């Protein structure tokens, strides 16, 4: 991006972040459902699922899936903010000003990245309070942060499309609901080899499972095997498609 686009994007991102910081409840709400799920699975179902393992150990097992649920939950607010700016004429107003057109859209994307990573940090805090521990070094933490940031970017660009094209607020945010529950049909809560045939096939061939396995292996200081390449292939592929689709819809809307 040129210096002009970067400068405009930075200013507009600051504007968008102010709206987020003035309604901290959205960040808290984003983390509530994943945290509730974590508490439920650890303290209610954990004894049966983890077969006697300590609660701290089971928290470490399911935490990667809970983190992905947190991001998926927060994406609905991204679609909501984009939809609101579209319907209230903010996009049209900025279009009439000497501002880079893509800067408006990128400001929403960057705001989503910041807001969702804050929600993820809140979930991490609760997980540590519940007994989660890991001895990984700085490099592994950066790797986990990078994976979560890329996953957030993927879902954010996916959220751009319904945010720009939906006819109602509920329509803009409803697309995130299947994403929130996708970790349930993956390796996030139980090993996939415990699932019946067709369910197991789906769980092992959808994007959440390799992402979860990679983050879990990093936390456990184990080899990440080929899962990391499968996870990256899924995320980069979806990101390219979502970015292209989002830009096409955006240009149509502001033309």
TrEMBL record:
Compartment(s) of residence: Cell membrane; Membrane
Ranges of residues in domain ABC transmembrane type-2: 25-253
Transmembrane regions listed in the UniProt entry: 27-49, 61-83, 104-132, 138-160, 172-190, 228-250
GO cellular component: ATP-binding cassette (ABC) transporter complex
Top-level lineage group: Bacteria
Keywords for this protein: Antibiotic resistance, Cell membrane, Membrane, Transmembrane, Transmembrane helix, Transport
Membrane topology reported for the UniProt record: Multi-pass membrane protein
First-listed, main subcellular location of the protein, grouped into a coarse class: membrane
Similarity comment: Belongs to the ABC-2 integral membrane protein family.
Protein name from the UniProt record: Transport permease protein
